[in-house]
Structure formats: C-alpha cells, structure tokens
Amino acid sequence: MRQGGEKRVVSGMRPTGPLHLGHYFGVLRNWVDFQENYTCYYFVADWHALTSEYAEPKIIKPFVAELMKDWIASGLDPEKCVLFQQSLIKEHAELSLLLSMITPLGWLERNPTYKEIRQELINKDLNTHGFLGYPVLQAADILCYRPDFVPVGHDQLPHLELTREIARRFNHLYGDYFPEPQAKLTESARLPGLDGRKMSKSYGNCIYLGEEMATIRPKVMSMLTDTNRMRKTDPGNPEVCNLYPYHRLMTPGDICQEIQENCTQAKWGCVDCKKVLLTHLEAFLAPIQERRRRMDDHPELIREILETGNTQARQEACLTMDSARAMLGFDF
Fold first, then answer.
1. Are residues 214 and 81 in the same domain?
2. Per-residue exposure over 297-308, b if at least 16 CB sit within 10 Å of its own CB, e if not
3. Global pTM?
4. Does 312 share its domain with 283?
C-alpha cells in the first residue's frame, strides 16, 4: 500500500443495502480525497449491521461485496488505502469487550443517536445489549488503529466524543496509550431524497450508484420541485427547489447559472430542468457504473482486495491488542 502520509484516518460503513447518491456526496467523495494525503483504514462494518438486522442476518453477507464494489467504483483505491471487513478482524471484538468493562452505562444511555435511531426504526425491536453498546464497539473499531482523525459530519460529533471519552478513561486507568482521535469535519453535501425528505432506502426515495438510467429517468421526472410554483408561467426559486441541490453537485456552473435565470424568469418549467439534470446525472454515473461492471465480471477481485486489506488491518490491530493486554496485565 502506498503510504499517503503519516497521519491516520479510520472510518467504516454498514453493509445494509446498496449505496445511493447521498452516500457518495456525503461520505465517499471525502474518503477518496483523504486517501491521497493520509494513511486510511476503511472497513465494512458488518458487525454493526447486526445491531438492527439481527433478526435477518443472512441479508448482510451479500451486501459486503456489493458495498466494496460501490467503494471502488467511486474511486477508493486498494493501493492507496486499506479496505477490510470488520468481523474478520477479531481484535475489534476483544478490544470492545475490554472497553465495555470501563464504560459507564450512563454514557451509553445518554447517547443522542441511541434515541434517534430507536425512534426512526420503530418497526424493529432495538432493546438489545448490542444496540445499546454499539458505541463501545465503534470506539474499538477506531482505537484499534490509533488514528489521528475520524471523518465525521457535525451531527456525528457526539459519537466521536464518546470514543474520545473511552480512550481518556482507559489512559487514566492504565497509562497513556490510545490517542484521542480528532474530528475531521467533512464538507456536508447532503442531497434530499426524491420526495424532499432525507435520502434513505427505507423511504424509497433514492437514486442508487448502480442503478440503470431506465429506472432513474421516471424517478427524476416525478421528483418534488418548488412547491410554490404551480404553473410554468410562475417564477420559480431554485434555492427552495428539491431538484437544485442535484444540479449544484453534478451540473457545470455555467449551466447552473442558466438554470437560475430561466427558472426565476419563468422561461423554463420544471420538466425542462429535470431533462437537463438527467443529462448530467447520466454523465456522472457512467464511469462509476462502468468500473462497477468490470468488478461484476471479475468477482475474484473483491475477494483478493479484502484478503489483502484484512491482512494489513489485522497486523495493526494485533499490535494494538498486544499493548492493551500488557497494560491491563492480561498478557498471559
């Protein structure tokens, strides 16, 4: 692996479904940039997927390879970063167990995301030890690689702060070892879903990275736009339109300016604007989908990439656990 720099970055993603445009612009684009300047560890968080999918665990396995395909198609390069699978690095589980011994229950109960996800996934029984304790496993995922940075959005800062508190408590009890990883605040380029809500597969309002244009076109043509614009002759406001954030990310700046003028002056209707978006959306997705098709034709590539990445990650995690055990006096 090419060492992009001395500073380390760690992040992961759950394999619970195909990735959509929101994942790309909210996470993957930043990951691709980081691999050029940092030593990056990116993992498929399949154990974390069990916190919500424990009743149907068989759905997780197929998405491990699919997630990897989306990552590599989006620009992650296994020559520039370590791509690995969480559940095949058993040191994550061991460190999570050790950290759980020192993590106060109150820290977990006041985790804001704990309450938010329970309210969002009301159709799932999340009254489990695994769901309550997932921040401890998350801390182990991070601390196994003693990173300098963890890429997060502003809404994820409480997650990282809990990891920092756990690291601080370990260091206080047993001696300084774990760094307190800093937040690498990422540019937030959030895309609304097709209906204006958060883009989520549970809402059925996504455009997926691997989706064919034949199914994308009707989705785009039915998208919610400026609800105040009732007729084509009414002036529109791109700043409140659900469609315009897509243009900002995928349509060239000069054409965005043209859209602004034609919309606010009622020269274009929403259908015209959607047709322009489809042109640039197809151009954006074409290279991603071509790279993905090449991996579909050679499934052994994903296995080889994961085997290599797992070996690299395991070596680093073993070093961490050797030191952690010694500090606890469990180096039997």
1. no
2. eeeebbeebbeb
3. 0.92
4. no
